[in-house]
Design a protein that fits this description.
Elements (H helix, E strand, L loop, with lengths): L2 H13 L2 E5 L9 H13 L4 E4 L4 H11 L6 E4 L2 E4 L1 H9 L2 H8 L7
Parallel strand pairs: 1-2
Antiparallel strand pairs: 1-3, 3-4
Helix pairs in contact: 1-3, 2-4
């Protein structure tokens, strides 16, 4: 993977308090897992940046190596990899996702 893709991923992760690497966009998710991640974040009411990995093959492969996680979507909070769709769902249902945002000082509605 290119150093350029890694640098762009690192910059995105480190300059956005919450960022979701996903297939598609929040308005038009291109897979069910990305759609579920968007629904959870929107329900909590947290502001987040999104990166459509389908628009850039370097980012699509690079994010998997960056996090050492094989699937997309991937959520980062304050530069830290949180997880994919299943982990987000488990954390949301347990109340841990809202708690994580509160601990990190991320505003939300829920």
């Amino acid at each position: 993977m290119s150093n350029e893709a890694q640098a762009r991923i690192a910059e995105t992760v480190n300059t956005n308090p919450v960022v979701l690497f996903m297939k598609g966009t929040p308005l038009f998710p291109q897979c069910g897992f990305s759609s579920r991640a968007v629904a959870i974040l929107d329900h909590i009411g947290v502001e987040y940046a999104s990166v459509d990995v389908l628009q850039d093959q370097g980012i699509r492969q690079g994010i998997k190596e960056y996090s050492d996680w094989p699937t997309i979507p991937q959520l980062y909070v304050k530069g830290e990899f949180v997880g994919g769709s299943d982990i987000l769902m488990e954390m949301y249902e347990a109340g841990e996702l809202v708690q994580l945002f509160e601990e990190r000082g991320i505003a939300h509605k829920a």
